[in-house]
Amino acid sequence: MNVHDSERLSGLLEDAGYRRAADGDDADVVVFNTCAVRENADNKLYGNLSHLAPRKQADPGMQIAVGGCLAQKDRASVLDRAPWVDVVFGTHNIGSLPALLDRARHNRAAQVEIIDALEEFPSDLPAARESSYAAWVSISVGCNNTCTFCIVPSLRGKEVDRRPGDILAEVQALVDQGVLEVTLLGQNVNAYGVSFADPELPRDRGAFAKLLRACGNIDGLERVRFTSPHPAEFTDDVIDAMAATPNICPQLHMPLQSGSDRILKAMRRSYRAEKFLGIIDRVREKMPHAAITTDLIVGFPGETEEDFQATLDVVERARFASAFTFQYSKRPGTPAATLADQVPPEVVKERYGRLIELQERICMAGNAEQVGRTVELLVAAGEGRKDTATARLTGRARDGRLVHFAPGDVDGIRPGDIVTAQVTAAAPHHLVADGGVLSHRRTRAGDAHEAGQRPVTGVKRVGLGMPGLGRPAPQPALSSCGSGCS
Ligand code: SF4
């Protein structure tokens, strides 16, 4: 969500006449899009702002803006701690950034604008996409749940769902520009359809399954993923839609968080372990090769050894293809941060080690089963850090697994192209296909990547009512009378 918001910020600024600074160049405008979910987000932000302070002092015309969840949470205190910041904006008004930069420059005073409800659906804003072949598409923002460890509801607000027609139009616009894969984004995609922003649209519990099926009708759209579903609201019509729609990828990211019903209750997650496992069984029944991944928190307040053992048991039974595992740490502003029975860090660490060991074994076993299979890969840019050393390229299989492959004697494979290859080896977090590619399809996404073109979406905007857009042209040198006349 945060990465996609950054694409929107880039799109807004490009639309307003700004240009991306070359790598290594000093930028005239620096925007921090912050995330409060990650640990130490504030230390990182204020550390980065301190690094910029000497630059700002040397060049008062450069501008620094801070947005995102941390700005929404800290509001005016950002300026107390870093008075050299020019603009502070929140999660609900990212569209105001160009106007706020203009206003700060014009008024020579810092601008803080945080609003408490969504101003406009962010997906109507321009977006400068980072990838020519894969794109995020927001279907909703905010969340109506109240998980006690999570800061999202207080910073992103109540759920607002976008109109299906707008979503599909954005997907079509991306496909028209060569994009092959979209990931539908929402904090809780299974709730899609109960909080439409458009009052004319009736509540529709089946809206997400319908949306998936509609994506299946878009010619040229080869892969559809979505994140994140919520086990409490996951319904079988979504499984049926996934199984019946060929371009929906056989992949499901289903956050478990804990395998203990007692802890799930304390987290205010309204499903229980058996329900979770039942969903997974039904997904596997319809899609036997689906890669199911999850999120897990170890050491939530009050977690006993027995609770933790319940998590290990569910993990053993669920056989996740991979898991994002987190050691619980307090997030100020969340209900769980004030609970008395916090688990000592050394206990959390020890349990975490056991969980990782188990999950690594399961990852390895799952990946070993892939050896000998032929996989279709969407070639990726920048996902294989050792590719130069190994002369391999990297792609994602349809089920989301990362595969490093040797191109063999096939030349000219580009990010965005499609290849097939046979898996020759497995590791816990990736596969290797060293036998050369079996087929290579050049795609429009590959052409776009090669040409340095990135898709653009969203409503083209004009000025936002402030004088001038973009950094102003340099002023003519003052004459000796100091009035600017010559
Ligand atoms: S479902 Fe829970 S964890 Fe996910 S965004 Fe909503 S409150 Fe946070």
Description:
The chain is α/β, with parallel strands linked by helices and 486 residues long. The protein folds into three domains: 116 residues, 3-Layer(aba) Sandwich (Rossmann fold); 247 residues, pyruvate-formate lyase- activating enzyme (Alpha-Beta Horseshoe), CATH 3.80.30.20; 75 residues, OB fold (Dihydrolipoamide Acetyltransferase, E2P). It contains 15 helices and 21 strands. It is globular and about 65 Å long. The C terminus is likely disordered. The structure holds iron/sulfur cluster (SF4). The site of iron/sulfur cluster has 9 residues, from α6.
Structure at a glance:
With 486 residues, this protein is α/β, with parallel strands linked by helices. It has helices at 2-15, 41-58, 69-74, 77-81, 97-107, 152-156, 164-176, 207-215, 236-244, 261-266, 273-286, 305-318, 345-368, 387-390, 444-450; strands spanning 29-34, 63-68, 87-89, 111-113, 127-128, 134-138, 140-141, 160-161, 181-185, 223-227, 251-253, 291-298, 322-327, 374-379, 393-397, 402-405, 418-422, 425-427, 430-433, 437-441, 456-457. Residues 1-106 form the MTTase N-terminal domain.
